[in-house]
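Appendix B. Extra example for self-study. Work through it before the problem class; the solution is given directly after the inputs so you can check yourself.
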Amino acid sequence: MTTPVKAKNIEVSFGANQVLRDVSMVAETGEAVAVVGANGAGKTTLIKVLAGVLEPSAGGVTFGGDELQKMKRRQIARRVAVVPQGAPQVFSYHLLDFVLMGYHARTARFSMPSTDQIDGARRALASLELGDLEESPVSHLSGGELQRALMARAMVASVPLWLLDEPTASLDMRHQVALLEQVRCHVDGGGAAVAILHDLALIHRFFDRVLVLHEGVFLADGAPDEVLVPEIVSQIFAVPMQRGEVEGKVVWVVA
Amino acid sequence: MTKRPLSALRIAAVALITLIIWVAVAALGLAYGSSDLGGWDLLVRWISGDLSATEEAIVYRARLPRVVFAGLVGAALAVGGAVFQAVLRNPLADPYILGISGGAALGGTLLLTLGSVTVGALVLGTPVAAFAGAMGALAVIFGVEKWTPPGRGSTYVLLLTGVIVNAFAASVIMFFQSVVSARKAQEILFYLMGSLAVEGTPVAVMGAAAVVILGSIVVIYAFARDLNALSLGDEDAAYLGVEVRKVRRVTVTVASLAVAVAVAFSGIIGFVGLVVPHAVRLVVGPDHRVLLPACAFGGAAFLTGADVVARAMFSLLGTTLPVGVLTSMIGAPLFLYFLWRSLRRSEEWQ
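Solution. Structure tokens for the complete assembly:
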């Protein structure tokens, strides 16, 4: 098993506010890792550090042994695809053109998209039920559609590691499951994924490991069934939580 | 049947159509001017090499340089506007937003106010001072931007610094306009309104300006795909593999260089850099691989056309209108039309 991403002793501060404190983690090939924590725990900051767009004040990140800080953005983009939280779009690219931008790091400066790339983008859109919207301007998409469009863009990049920042936040249940099935498919096909998620039941179902981030440090790291217990979950969200089972599947409720 | 994404053929077709539009407008600019001499038969005789000495003087010394210069300035402003709108992710951005106009205007005003130059030297002196002012403004802006940590709102730092530079330059210009003589103040006012009168400028100087502007556009085009990514946002562009800071610095510097050269000779011509990229984007879409060439020829056609109208007004008003006045008068309703068209299309999506 190889290690697509390894972060060691990461520290990040914004002024006097220390957001991440001595955080270390790995994501192995074939592993889906969920990151959970309350708002402001440092989850998005961690994803940005792993993606190389935020430089930590201490510590470092390696991809398969290569130091992130010494890599060019193009090299990073050939190994990591990021699904950020969807932000409103200013310019109205058609959805298909938007997804084709996922090939950016693999396309020469003056090249046009190849037939294979166009077919790949259409397949990604179809798998996320966006095939009918390929000519829609992205500025006209709903929050959930934009989130799936960002996912489709990551899918076409054909990279080993996916970093997902709350990819299901704007999705209905059916699309949440459909998107996480794509994550599972990527991981089972030899990739790796690190995703921020708030739905604990979905973490039990789709993820191999969970990292619990609390006030800038990891409180727990392990298999979801072992780590996600009422004591820890109640502590991080500061609300009493109960875990149960329905037809063999884990469910969580506020007590 | 679904449309295919952008192809090289479509880019070539759009570029060719906009080029033809510019050539048609340029032909109009060659045929008609403030002088009574002209008409389409003048063009026919020019092509067949059958011009009189007077006609040759008008075509080669007045109209041709003016038409070519209008094309160059229009292209520089429109491409500059497209670049700034993408890099700053701000549809209201124009090529002057980072203080280029303020710097150039201040440089030109300083020379007109303080310089004791002969009329002959003024042709060269004002452009040089304006160019130096524009470059000074750019140096201030990038000096401030250099100290901004990456990913911490550096786009807004650029914007804010540009606004401050423009405001500072405007206050200094007003100060000079207040203390100089009425004749000098009017001279400064006319300079600030912009003009495409380049008659008498040495061919070598105009050639150098053309090389800088056209070269800048070619360099910017090489970053067209990066500009697409940047227009999604700095972080998104970085995720896609773009060296955000480097690309922004190169594209903004090169676009500013082209705009600085243009305004050094023409003064501040407003609206072209704002309205042309918008209008062209509404027709050909936001992809910079097709948007940039369309903006270059579209901007050239728009400013050349505005100048033709401005010169034609001579017979009505007895004076040539500053072309900057007309670009706004023509541009505003044109822009509203394109906006209306775009909104109608949007309704179809609902």
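Self-check: Chain B has a mean pLDDT of 85. If your reasoning did not lead you there, revisit section 3.
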